Amino acid sequence: MKINTKNNKCGGVFFRVLCIGILLLSAAWVSAQDAEPAVELQPLEAEQAEYFDSLRQRMEQTRAKIADLEEGLAKVDEISRGIYVARLDKLWIQLVDDGLTMGEAVIAEYENNVDIGEYRVAAIEILEAQGGIAGIAWQRVRDHAA
């Protein structure tokens, strides 16, 4: 069907507006179907932020202790070596545990519609590293259990 817009200027404008309106409404409807409903986020409580910060600080301290022990491992005698290895094993397991604790806590706050801000990115980075950390911890325990 061809619409003659030369003789009917109002009809042509109306048709264009109608088409554009339909396109815009259909695009808005599709995006509304894909989007999650808007939820007002609650502010993160100061106590919870302090908890997240303390976990991150503890993880940084654990990594520093691991680095120090691994450096000192090459310089110790055989008796002290066993002590260093046991401490390293414990620290690697602690690092895994702290990372999972941080991730679970951040996810819980997110699911409760709390604005977790910077902690979301930190938790993602920590959880991405957990596979490698858990692998190292598992290998260490396995090697020394034999």
Explain this structure.
The model is unreliable at 1-34 (pLDDT under 50). The protein has a two-stranded parallel sheet with strand order 1-2. It has 2 domains: 1-35; 42-145. It is elongated. Helix 2 packs antiparallel against helix 3 (78-111). It starts with 8 loop residues before the first helix and ends with a helix. The longest helix is centred in the middle third of the chain and has 34 residues, at 78-111. Helix content is 79%, strand content 3%. It is an all-alpha fold.
Q: What is the secondary structure topology, with strand pairs?
A:
Elements: H1 9-34, E1 42-43, H2 46-73, H3 78-111, E2 114-115, H4 118-145
Parallel strand pairs: 1-2
Helix pairs in contact: 2-3, 3-4
Concise synopsis of the structure shown:
The chain is mainly alpha-helical and 146 residues long.
Features:
single chain, 146 residues, mainly alpha, 2 domains, elongated, disordered N terminus
Q: What would the average pLDDT be, to the nearest integer? A: 77
Count of extended strands: 2
Q: Which stretches are poorly predicted, pLDDT < 50 over at least 5 residues?
A: 1-34
The tally of helices reads: 4
Major sheet attributes: 2 strands, parallel
User: Structural class of the secondary structure composition?
Assistant: mainly alpha
Q: Report how far apart the termini are.
A: 83 Å
Major sheet: arrangement of strands: 1-2
The shape is: elongated
**Which percent range describes the beta-strand content?**
under 5%
